[in-house]
């Protein structure tokens, strides 16, 4: 095992600084940019920066590299495809890789109904397709979405997104017909039911039913409810067990479609192919992207066959279902199957959660630990009693961990997210968590003096 992480020069080093100066001149300042990590190459669960530092990757390129960086099977499949055919617009003609991947996707999709696949290039495009199909099929205008949600930044997806004001500021008017309702964020339940998941779940469901659908939004005009089975950018928020089944009940009662956004939580991250499988509900439409293309741009909407009946020309995209992306995506699915990565994500995730829960007992700033599989959030607070969000604390832990060789980022405002490649060697994961833990302790003493 390599002696990692390895910091040979405090980042950002001289080569990184040179590139940062060039970047600043030509790249849009709208990007997020957590910290000035300038990546040269990556392999497995390690990231090498341009100054020779080696980091352990706890974010997997924002939940994209679920099978690790440069997996030989993925690279081989992509190379082979690149030599044969790089592009020939799947929306206008036909080729085999998009068919093979779709055949696989409909097999691993949740539930027993027959399904079909629409391809785009990103998560936002998979969401655009989902809301367009829902409106087209139902001939209804309204879409219900959740506060705290992140579905992307194109106009349709942005209109559903509601996790940070900056994502919407000055961009209005947004797409009309979107109604936002609270999400059952148990640690900060909008209905005040302190730490009782069931009560938070029932109150949130009752709000949708009694205050939205009975007071001002005619249910017969609602096309779909769009949700993340675990909120990602909103802060790695896991809903109570009864919540998604409760949503399904409301949806069934009013003949509304359920759109499941698996862009971040899907493709094995939570220990199942799709996070919604933890809740036993089959969605009508599902959006996938990120890890779907194993690092190549790819998004997919997977919908019940009886719903995917829109006419030719109603929705398409030149690059959607690129053959190289599809070949890489199919190879990644086979890797997850052959290497038993679903089971691995579940087992490693349980170990990490146990460790972090023990830390929570001892720490003054770890307020909540939650997650499924290797999608784990650690919420930092200034004070465990008031639960005032530890925004500076989370930021400080993130930066200190990075400088010590762990690429970890935050979600929401004050949540550390732990989302490494699913095949990260256990030893690396342990070392990375050791470092993050030590930085939490450092920051705790820094802010309490
Ligand atoms: C749940 C979810 N949906 C949609 C998106 C948008 O995906 P993309 O950035 O590929 O457009 C993201 C991106 O973070 C996401 O986390």
Can you give a write-up of this model?
This protein has 449 residues and is of the alpha/beta class. The protein has two domains: 14-57 and 340-448, Aspartate Aminotransferase, domain 1 (Alpha-Beta Complex); 72-338, Aspartate Aminotransferase, domain 2 (3-Layer(aba) Sandwich), CATH 3.40.640. It is 37% helix and 16% strand. It has twelve helices and 15 strands. The strands form three sheets. It has a seven-stranded mixed beta sheet, sandwiched between helices. Strands 1-2-3-13 form a four-stranded mixed beta sheet. A four-stranded antiparallel beta sheet has the order 11-12-15-14, with helices on one face. Strand 11 and strand 12 form a beta hairpin. Helix 3 packs antiparallel against helix 9 (323-338). The longest helix is centred in the C-terminal third of the chain and has 23 residues, at 426-448. It is globular and about 60 Å long. The mean pLDDT is 97. It binds pyridoxal-5'-phosphate. The site of pyridoxal-5'-phosphate (PLP) has 14 residues, from helix 5. Pyridoxal-5'-phosphate (PLP) is lined by residues 122-124, 127, 150-152, 228, 232-233, 261, 263-264, 289. InterPro entries: Aminotrans_3 (IPR005814), Aminotrans_3_PPA_site (IPR049704), Class-III_PLP-dep_AT (IPR050103), PyrdxlP-dep_Trfase (IPR015424), PyrdxlP-dep_Trfase_major (IPR015421), PyrdxlP-dep_Trfase_small (IPR015422). It catalyses: L-ornithine + 2-oxoglutarate = L-glutamate 5-semialdehyde + L-glutamate. This is Ornithine aminotransferase. GO terms for molecular function: identical protein binding; ornithine aminotransferase activity; pyridoxal phosphate binding. Its EC number is 2.6.1.13.
């Amino acid at each position: 095992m390599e002696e990692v992480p390895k910091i040979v020069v405090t980042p950002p080093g001289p080569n990184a600084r040179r590139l940062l100066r060039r970047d600043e001149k030509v790249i849009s300042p709208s990007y997020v940019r957590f910290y000035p990590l300038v990546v040269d190459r990556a392999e497995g669960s390690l990231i090498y920066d341009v100054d020779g530092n080696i980091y352990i990757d706890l974010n997997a390129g924002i939940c994209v590299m679920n099978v690790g960086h440069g997996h030989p099977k993925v690279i081989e499949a992509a190379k082979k495809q690149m030599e044969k055919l790089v592009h020939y617009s799947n929306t206008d003609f036909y080729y085999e890789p998009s068919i093979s991947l779709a055949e696989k996707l409909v097999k691993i999709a949740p539930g027993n109904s027959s399904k079909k696949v629409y391809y785009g290039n990103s998560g936002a495009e998979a969401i655009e397709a989902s809301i367009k199909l829902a409106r087209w099929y139902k001939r209804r205008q309204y879409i219900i979405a959740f506060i705290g949600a992140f579905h992307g930044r194109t106009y349709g997806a942005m209109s559903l997104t509601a996790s940070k004001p900056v994502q919407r500021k000055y961009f209005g008017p947004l797409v009309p017909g979107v109604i936002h309702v609270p999400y059952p964020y148990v640690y900060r339940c909008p209905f005040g039911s302190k730490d009782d998941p069931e009560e938070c779940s029932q109150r949130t469901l009752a709000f949708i039913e009694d205050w939205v659908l009975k007071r001002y939004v005619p249910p017969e005009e609602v096309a779909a409810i769009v949700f993340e089975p675990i909120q990602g950018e909103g802060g790695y928020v896991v809903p109570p067990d009864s919540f998604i089944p409760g949503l399904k009940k409301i949806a069934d009662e009013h003949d509304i479609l359920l759109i499941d956004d698996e862009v971040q939580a899907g493709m094995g991250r939570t220990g199942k192919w799709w996070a919604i499988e933890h809740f036993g509900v089959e969605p009508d439409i599902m959006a996938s992207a990120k890890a779907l293309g194993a690092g190549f741009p790819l998004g997919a909407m997977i919908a019940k066959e009886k719903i995917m009946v829109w006419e030719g020309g109603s929705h398409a995209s030149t690059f959607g279902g690129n053959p190289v992306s599809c070949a890489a995506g199919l190879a990644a699915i086979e890797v997850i199957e052959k290497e038993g990565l679903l089971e691995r994500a579940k087992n490693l995730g349980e170990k990490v959660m146990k460790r972090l829960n023990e830390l929570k007992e001892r720490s003054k700033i770890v307020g909540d630990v939650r997650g499924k599989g290797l999608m784990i959030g650690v919420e930092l607070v200034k004070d465990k009693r008031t639960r005032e969000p530890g925004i500076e604390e989370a930021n400080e832990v993130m930066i200190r961990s990075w400088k010590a060789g762990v690429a970890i980022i935050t979600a929401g405002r004050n949540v550390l997210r732990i989302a490494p490649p699913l095949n990260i060697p256990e030893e690396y994961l342990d070392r990375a968590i050791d470092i993050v833990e030590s930085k939490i302790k450092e920051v705790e003493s820094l802010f309490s003096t």
